[in-house]
Amino acid sequence: MKSSKSSVRIWRITGISSIVATIVLIGGFIYAISDVLHPVGSTYTGTASIDPATSETATSTANADGSFRVTVLGDSLAKGTGDDDGSGFARRTVDLLQKDGKDAKLIANLGINGQKTAAVLSSLEQPGVQHVLQQSNMIFVSIGANDLFNAGEALGNNQQQAPTEQQLLVNLPKASKTLQQILERIAKINPDAHILYLGLYNPFSDLPELRVPGNEAVTTWNTTAMNIINSQSNMSLIPTFDLFQQNINKYLSSDHFHPNGTGYEQIAERVVQSIE
């Protein structure tokens, strides 16, 4: 009797645990979609994380002396959403460079949750943004995920079937053109800066119905971005797809969309490897 009751108890606990895990996953999924469909903020107001101690002229930030003056702009990944301590990959990159004895400072973090390519392009005409970019010799850009995964509210609607690659890529032609305009505009604002674009990963690769279409869509986007970047000598693409593909549960935060602290640290380590 005791053995029977014990077995029932074990199965009951297992069942409850599975239900809780499913609810958490769905909750994170809904949060991620909400962040895409209903972004918080749309323009840079001049109050982003700017370090006044690093306010220098554009000429003094050239890295001929081995120094790094970093600015990041774009979406929630640029901002560092999901990070345990709020550092994000930009701050973590600066910290790693400092630990390696480099003269590195984060000039500003201009990341905004839910931001898309059109909003970033528009922000580049703001004097405050241009001023910050002109003081930087390393500019990180993280943008495109909201354009891509907003396609059909594909992920937010209660559909009978998972979205196809074609549905996910419906925004790619326009968004990729805007991405090219963003990168070229930044290069014009500061011709001496090294621009690093953060490639996309598929945060839903552990969901059977989204693994294949998501992987194909992200790969197509990253290839398009690489073709744009290859035409410019002062630009690089930092790949993240492989980092997360087999480590979704390990590197994503509870919202199942943004990296956690460990995930951002992995990105930062890859950035440092690419610039050393």
Task: Provide the fold topology.
Layout: H1 2-37, E1 49-50, E2 68-74, H2 76-79, H3 88-99, E3 104-111, H4 117-123, H5 127-134, E4 138-142, H6 145-149, H7 165-168, H8 172-189, E5 194-198, H9 208-229, E6 235-238, H10 241-245, H11 248-251, H12 261-275
Parallel strand pairs: 2-3, 2-4, 4-5, 5-6
Antiparallel strand pairs: 1-3
In short:
The protein has 276 residues and is of the alpha/beta class. 51% of the residues lie in helices and 11% in strands.
Structure, described:
This protein is of the alpha/beta class. Helix content is 51%, strand content 11%. The protein has helices at 2-37, 76-79, 88-99, 117-123, 127-134, 145-149, 165-168, 172-189, 208-229, 241-245, 248-251, 261-275, and strands at 49-50, 68-74, 104-111, 138-142, 194-198, 235-238. The chain has a six-stranded mixed β-sheet with strand order 1-3-2-4-5-6, sandwiched between helices. Helix 9 (208-229) links the parallel strand 5 (194-198) and strand 6. Helix 3 (88-99) crosses helix 12. The longest helix is centred in the N-terminal third of the chain and has 36 residues, at 2-37. The N and C termini lie far apart (66 Å). Residues 16-62 have low confidence and may be disordered.
